[in-house]
Design goal:
Radius of gyration of chain A: 24 Å
Structural class of chain B: mainly alpha
CATH topology of the largest domain in chain B: MetI-like fold
Number of helices of chain A: 16
Largest sheet of chain A: 8 strands, mixed
CATH class of the largest domain in chain A: Alpha Beta
Oligomer: heterodimer
Helix content of chain B: over 70%
CATH architecture of the largest domain in chain A: 3-Layer(aba) Sandwich
CATH architecture of the largest domain in chain B: Orthogonal Bundle
Order of helices and strands of chain A: EEEHEEHEHHHHHHHHEHEHEEHHHEEH
Shape of chain B: globular
Structural class of chain A: alpha/beta
Distance between the termini of chain A: 38 Å
Number of helices of chain B: 15
Order of helices and strands of chain B: HHHHEEHHHHHHHHHHH
Number of domains of chain B: 2
Strand content of chain B: under 5%
Number of strands of chain B: 2
Number of strands of chain A: 12
CATH superfamily of the largest domain in chain B: MetI-like
Shape of chain A: elongated
Radius of gyration of chain B: 24 Å
Distance between the termini of chain B: 8 Å
CATH superfamily of the largest domain in chain A: P-loop containing nucleotide triphosphate hydrolases
Largest sheet of chain B: 2 strands, antiparallel
């Protein structure tokens, strides 16, 4: 397997008035090329914080304070990865939306309410495909049936030529800031809009040329989520991160969106990192699963392995809590509540709720144990230390 | 859109009717003698009071007096202003340009400075920029206008002799009065008329006299605008669509100015509109302290001398201003926010 994204010991803290919230306590996972990685866990366990830390879009007062987020842009060269935590903000602005993009939980809030759909999708192209689009516009301008050779037309052509060579050109940047003069970009924006219509159409939205003129409040939740996906897919990224992308949609729309993501993975994008609290979605769409609890990754396994042979007590409890069709008797739930991360339990963070907790679990955080077959668990049940020592 | 505007102006008549009845009613609580006394200037005339009451019907029932007033107003007769010693309508056009002129300069400063300061303080939250603009805002907002105006006047006129009160220096005012044929009052606003008459010295001098009033007014009023903008920006920056924009690779400038600020502007429009509408009555303290004879000054003088026709006129004027401002706010809202339809 070749890795696309690898995190090592990722630590993120939030500095709030009540104290430091230790939201991520060292997450290590690998997303492979061509795979769909599912990240599951209860609300508040740090799933969203984990992926936002990977993209470095954690909002105040959060800070990514340790670890590595390595991206391998070339599947054939696993030696040359880029650690995103060491890169400048400008580098990340280039990367986000172009190589790694993200879709969000709440489609109603994820779109700017006062910007038209077309403008919002077009932004992706204007951020990342400027050079390419300028070259295309220039080509059209140079055609014999193009605009006349007035001085203004010549100036416009000159600007496009410069922008096609280098989008950060000083003259180009200057003219985009001056009122009236900045309208030379009209054709560029038209080109971006044309591409937006194309991508929106590809996502199965009827009448894309009309939809781009609408505003978010004109669309239904499922449509909005498609638009959010269109924004994320605009530049054909390597990795798509879906942060609870289907949680707030009704079941039929949810199925449509999941189908869409599945088919997109075959055509447009290399890998998907899917965050969800729905184990059914995981079973249906993912290849590998990571189970998170209170800022820790307790178990990572292939999807079949995890469902048939869960090792971590939390994973077992989680699977036992899934309602089944032929179930009799009350639904099982996990005793206790998610700990407050300002003052997390010492040792393994799950021990207050764990039926198999031992003394060592209360004192020390368990190392990750390799169970073979790409199955890892962070639990003392499977270490020699615990077996030798105290009984439950 | 057109029907919306027409309907608003139709409602305006009801608004004006309401406010005029209310104010008329309040003024009726003064006894007829007290109201008649406003026409008396010397002790000898005091014996005329019963005659004045009879002549103007000041002891008639409320509704008869109100209908009489409405009749006169509909004929274009707003009454006689004692303070101005001329008909109210004529006096209004004399005082109004002074207030309008100050607003013409102060309003854009209040609006744009408020938006700008609010944006940078919201974007750089809890930094020294934020703290200093907030301190500036709190000082401005909590200072009584008249006190602040007096302090500025004392410092800049009293000690440094830089800016003087009034609207124009005496020699220039005399030159206009002495040569009325060389100066036409097109708008009544000295800075504009000065230029139109080819007298830049008058325009500059008038501008010079405007510096302190505008400064006072802006510092006192900009705070509210700024605070609303600041909290708006902070709220918008925490919304999900900002995260979407960041995830698609937007730089900070685009996020702050293209996404968050436009959304944060909506509440600011309301506040700024109300501020401008209120300043149309001419911040009374500013005009009184700096001796600028505008609407605010006129209102203050008329209120102390119970100049009823003037009070009624300014009241109607303010009703009109508020309806027009609210209409403008609604139209601006609809142009910025696609969710709002004017129906």
């Amino acid at each position: 397997m070749t890795a696309l994204l690898q995190t090592e010991n990722l630590v993120t803290n939030f500095y709030t008035y009540e104290g430091v919230v230790r939201a991520l306590n060292g997450i290590s996972l690998v997303v492979d090329y061509g795979s769909t990685f599912g990240l599951v866990g209860e609300s508040g366990c740090g799933k969203s914080v984990a992926v936002r830390s990977m993209m470095r879009i954690i909002q105040e007062p959060g800070r990514v304070e340790g670890g590595k987020v390595v991206v391998f842009f070339d599947p054939d060269n696993q030696q040359r990865g880029v650690d995103l935590l060491q890169q400048s903000e400008a580098y990340l602005e280039h990367l986000r939306g172009d190589q790694i993009s993200m879709i969000f939980q709440e489609p109603n809030a994820a779109l700017n309410p006062i910007m038209s759909i077309g403008d919002q999708v077009a932004e992706s192209f204007l951020f990342h495909k400027r050079k390419e689009m300028c070259a295309r516009v220039l080509e059209a301008l140079r055609r014999p049936d193009g605009p006349s050779a007035s001085p203004l037309g010549a100036f416009q052509r000159h600007l496009y030529a410069r922008a096609a060579r280098n989008p950060r050109d000083l003259l180009v940047t200057l003219t985009t800031k001056i009122p009236l003069l900045k309208h030379w970009q009209r054709r560029l924006k038209k080109e971006a809009l044309r591409r937006s219509i194309e991508i929106i159409g590809k996502l199965g939205i009827p009448n894309p040329d009309k939809v781009v003129k609408l505003y978010p409040h004109n669309l239904s939740g499922g449509m909005k989520q498609r638009i959010v996906i269109a924004i994320a897919l605009a530049c054909s990224p390597l990795l798509l991160i879906a942060d609870e992308a289907t949680s707030n949609l009704d079941v039929t729309i949810q199925a449509q969106i999941l189908d869409l993501l599945r088919s997109l993975k075959q055509t447009e994008i290399a890998s998907i990192l899917l965050i969800t609290h729905d184990l059914g979605v995981v079973a249906e769409t993912c290849d590998r699963v990571g189970v998170m609890y209170a800022g820790n990754l307790c178990e990572v396994a292939d999807v079949g392995d995890l469902f048939h042979d869960p090792r971590h007590p939390y994973t077992r409890a989680l699977l036992a809590a899934v309602p089944r069709f032929h179930q009799e008797g009350p639904l099982l739930s996990i005793e206790g509540a998610v700990p407050n991360l300002v003052d997390p339990p010492a040792g393994c963070r799950f021990h207050p709720r764990c039926p198999e907790a031992r003394d060592i679990c209360r004192r020390q955080f368990p190392e990750t144990v390799d169970m073979g077959g790409d199955h890892t668990v962070a639990c003392y049940l499977y270490t020699d230390q615990a077996r030798a020592g105290d009984a439950p | 859109m057109h029907t919306f505007i027409l309907r608003r102006f139709f409602f305006l008549t009801f608004v004006l009717f309401g406010v005029s009845v209310l104010l008329f009613g309040i003024l009726m609580t003064f006894s007829p003698e007290r109201r008649a006394a406003a026409y008396v200037t010397t002790p000898q005339q005091a014996k005329d009071i019963p005659r004045i009451i009879k002549q103007f019907g000041l002891d008639d029932p409320f509704y008869i007096q109100y209908v009489r007033w409405i009749k006169e107003v509909s004929r274009g007769n707003l009454g006689w202003s004692l303070v101005a010693a001329r008909p109210v309508g004529e006096a209004f056009w004399r005082y109004f340009p002074i207030t309008l002129e100050m607003n013409l300069y102060a309003a854009p400063i209040v609006i744009f400075l408020g938006i700008w300061l609010g944006s940078i303080s919201g974007i750089h939250r809890d930094s020294w920029i934020d703290h200093s603009t907030r301190i500036f805002a709190i000082i401005g907002w909590s200072l009584p206008t008249f006190l602040f105006a007096l302090v500025l006047l004392m410092v800049f006129y009293g000690y440094f002799h830089l800016f003087s009160p009034g609207v124009l220096s005496d020699e220039l005012a005399m030159s206009i009065i002495n040569h009325p044929e060389q100066y036409t009052a097109y708008t009544g606003m000295l800075t504009i008329d000065g230029l139109l008459n080819g007298r830049p010295d008058i325009a500059l001098n008038a501008l010079h006299h405007l510096v302190l009033p505008i400064t006072t007014y802006v510092i006192v009023v900009v705070a509210l605008n700024m605070r609303v903008m600041r909290s708006g920006i902070i709220e918008e920056l925490s919304k999900d669509y900002v995260l979407t924009a960041r995830a698609k690779g937007a730089d900070r400038r685009t996020i702050h100015y293209k996404h968050a600020r436009r959304n944060a502007l909506l509440p600011v429009i309301t506040v700024a509109g109300q501020l401008v509408a209120m300043s149309m009555e001419g911040s009374i303290a500013v005009e009184v302290v700096y001796n600028r004879q505008g609407i605010g000054w006129w209102l203050a003088e008329s209120a102390t001398q119970l100049d009823m026709p003037v009070l009624m006129c300014i009241c109607l004027f303010m009703g009109l201003v508020f309806v027009v401002t609210n209409l403008t706010i609604d139209i601006l809202y609809a142009t910025i926010d696609p969710r709002i339809r004017l129906n």
